[in-house]
Amino acid sequence: MKIALIGYGKMGQAIEKIALDRGHEIVSIIDVSRDDSFDDDSFKSADVAIEFTRPEAAYSNYLKCFEANIPVVSGTTGWLDQLPEIEERCKNGEQTFFYASNFSLGVNIFFELNKQLARIMNKMSEYNVSMEEVHHTQKLDAPSGTAITLAEGIIENMDAKSNWKLYKEENSSDIAIKAIREGEVPGIHTIKYESPVDEIIIHHSAKSRHGFALGAVLAAEFAAQNKGFLSMNDLLNF
Ligand SMILES: NC(=O)C1=CN([C@@H]2O[C@H](COP(=O)(O)OP(=O)(O)OC[C@H]3O[C@@H](n4cnc5c(N)ncnc54)[C@H](OP(=O)(O)O)[C@@H]3O)[C@@H](O)[C@H]2O)C=CC1
Ligand SMILES: O=C(O)C1=N[C@H](C(=O)O)C[C@H](O)C1
Asked: What is the pLDDT of residues 125-178, one digit of tens each?
C-alpha cells in the first residue's frame, strides 16, 4: 500500500517504521520541515494519508486530501469543532475519513470498560466521578482527545452527567478532568469514582507510542479498503 504521511514528528516517525515493517511504501512526507507538497504526483499516488500534525493545521490538511480523493486516517486531537463538516463530506461514501482520539488497542478496550463501569455506577448516587490525564510537556491540547472520549462515554451512560470541564475546583456537577503535563509521558488516563467510604479507579498507561502507531497503520489498511466515516469500532468490531 502507498502511504502519504502528513506530519513527521513523534507520531509520523513511529508510524513510518511500523508501516515499512508491514511492507508498505511511504510515497510522500508532508511536514513543515520538508519539501514534499500536496501538489506532487507522489502525494497524489497515495492509497491513504495518515495525518498527525497539530490542532490548527489538521482540518485544512484533510480538505487537501479530499481534493485528491485520498482516504485520510486522522490522529490529530483538538480540532473536533469541525468534525460535523468532515462527517458531511463522508456521507454516501463520497470521501473516506477514519478518526480516533486514540488508536491503541488497549485504550479502545479501556473505552469499553469505562462505558460498562459508567452503566453500573449510574444508579450509585453516593459516588462522584472525576478524571485525570498525564502527558508529555510538548502536548498542545488539554484535556487530551482520549480524556474527552472517556468523558463522552460516561455522559452517554450516566443520567446525572451532561458535561465535562477542565478541573479547576471541586464540587461541580460536571465531570472534572485534571490535565497534567510532565516529562516525556506518552499518555496516562485515570477515572476515579469516589464515595465517602471508598474509591474505584480504572487506569490505562501507555508504555510508549508503539500502540498508537500500530493502530494508525491498521486503520490505514482498513481505510484503503472501506468507504465513508470510519472509527475504531468498525475496525475492532466492538
Ligand atoms: N490518536 C492517537 O492515537 C494519537 C494522537 N496524537 C495526536 O497527534 C498529534 C501529533 O502528535 P505528535 O506526533 O506527538 O506531535 P509532534 O509535534 O511531534 O509532530 C507534529 C508534526 O507535524 C508538523 N506540522 C505542523 N503543522 C503542520 C502542517 N500544517 N502540515 C504538516 N505538518 C505540520 C510539526 O512541525 P512543527 O514541529 O515544525 O510544528 C511536527 O513535525 C497531536 O494532536 C496529538 O495529540 C498523538 C498520539 C496518539
Ligand atoms: O499528544 C499525545 O501525545 C497524545 N494524544 C492523544 C490524545 O490527545 O488523547 C492520544 C495519546 O494520549 C497521546
From this structure: 999 999 999 999 999 999 999 999 999 999 999 999 999 999 876 666 789 999
Domain 2-103+210-236 has CATH 3.40.50.720: yes
Interface predicted TM-score (ipTM) of this complex, two decimals: 0.99
- Lookup result for grid cell 485504550: 107
| Pocket perturbation via mutation, ligand 1, pick of 36, 52, 184 by most ligand atoms within 8 A of CB | 52
> Cβ(211) to ligand 2 under 6 A?
no
CATH architecture of 105-205: 2-Layer Sandwich (3.30)
All structural domains of the chain with their residue ranges: 2-103+210-236, 105-205
CA distance 140 to 31: 17
Q: What is the pTM of this model?
A: 0.96
Q: Output the residue whose Cα is nearest ligand 2's atom 5.
A: 144
Which sign, positive or negative, has the C-alpha torsion 51, 52, 58, 61?
negative
Q: Evaluate whether 5 touches 50 at the Cβ level (below 8 Å).
A: yes
pLDDT at res. 121 = 98
Q: How far, in Å, is the centroid of ligand 1 from the Cα of 144? A: 13
